């Protein structure tokens, strides 16, 4: 199980260690204290660590948003490729055209289910079904090669190749996630930052230690939401594929 596919789990697993780190830092400071000579050094180190954490979170957030935008673009390109192939099938014989158009309609519905899948396992099962429909489509188009229209057959085959390629590009984009090393580095620096915050400043109300862990945990939660193609609430909605499916009326 990839826990990055569960943003709520990311929120909890990031918040708890940071709260513990801040509390431990505060406890150590209360027992040992911080000398005045060390206070300025501690503030300098803390500021440097916080800046590094902010840069990492900003960079990772940018990565997640760019991947999300890429998935949206590929959904549009996939719908365009299928729609073009649907129109090209009208060049075939009436019997084959109706058969292929029916399969394309079924294929579009499978792709919509892929985008709507709530987790990676469901998406994998849907993708298996769409792969079977791809094979049926390819076999039906190859059967048209026996016709006396070689140029038309090549055109339709080329369109089907674009459909298959677009699905492959989408799958690659869905597998392209923020590296685990980046998550680990952010987590380590966030925990260390909270440890320093708890240790460096004296305070009468320990509830102030809650603010920074909660803010950072929410930021990590949002990154996980955007980066998770199936597990989060922020997903690519296949508007183009749904619109295409509604417009398909096999003859």
Write a compact overview of the structure shown.
By secondary structure, this protein is mainly alpha-helical. Helices cover 79% and strands 0% of the residues.
Please tell me about this protein's structure:
There is one protein chain. The protein has 251 residues and is mainly α. 79% of the residues lie in helices and 0% in strands. It is built from 8 helices and no strands. The longest helix is centred in the N-terminal third of the chain and has 53 residues. The two termini are 45 Å apart.
**What is the count of DSSP helices, taking H or I runs of 4+ residues?**
8
Residue stretches low in confidence (pLDDT < 50, at least 5 long) are none
Task: Give the count of structural domains.
Answer: 1
The CATH topology turns out to be Methane Monooxygenase Hydroxylase, Chain G, domain 1
Task: Report, as a whole number of angstroms, the end-to-end distance.
Answer: 45 Å
Q: Mind telling me the C-alpha Rg?
A: 26 Å
Structural class: mainly alpha
Q: In percent, how much strand structure appears in the residues?
A: under 5%
**pLDDT averaged over residues:** 86
Shape: rod-shaped
- Give, in order, the helices and strands: HHHHHHHH
Which CATH class applies here? Mainly Alpha
Largest sheet: none
Helix coverage percent: over 70%
What is the annotated CATH architecture? Answer: Up-down Bundle
Based on DSSP secondary structure assignment, what is the total number of beta strands?
0
């Amino acid at each position: 199980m990839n826990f990055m596919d569960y943003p709520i789990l990311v929120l909890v697993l990031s918040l708890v260690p940071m709260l513990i780190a801040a509390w431990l830092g505060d406890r150590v400071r209360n027992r040992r204290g911080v000398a005045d000579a060390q206070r300025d050094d501690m503030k300098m180190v803390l500021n440097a660590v916080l800046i590094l954490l902010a840069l990492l979170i900003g960079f990772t957030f940018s990565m997640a948003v760019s991947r999300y935008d890429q998935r949206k673009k590929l959904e549009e390109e996939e719908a365009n490729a299928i729609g073009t192939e649907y129109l090209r099938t009208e060049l075939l014989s009436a019997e084959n055209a109706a058969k292929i158009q029916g399969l394309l309609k079924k294929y579009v519905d499978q792709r919509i289910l892929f985008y709507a899948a709530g987790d990676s396992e469901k998406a994998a099962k849907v993708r298996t079904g769409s792969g079977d429909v791809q094979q049926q489509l390819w076999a039906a188009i190859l059967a048209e090669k026996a016709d006396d229209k070689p140029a038309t057959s090549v055109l339709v085959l080329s369109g089907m190749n674009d459909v298959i390629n677009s699905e492959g590009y989408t799958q690659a984009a869905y597998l392209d996630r923020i590296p685990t090393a980046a998550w680990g580095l952010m987590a380590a620096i966030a925990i260390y930052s909270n440890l320093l915050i708890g240790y460096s400043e004296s305070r009468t109300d320990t509830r102030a230690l809650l603010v920074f862990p909660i803010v950072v945990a929410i930021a990590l939660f949002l990154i996980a939401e955007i980066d998770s193609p199936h597990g989060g609430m922020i997903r690519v909605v296949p508007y183009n594929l749904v619109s295409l499916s509604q417009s398909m009326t096999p003859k």
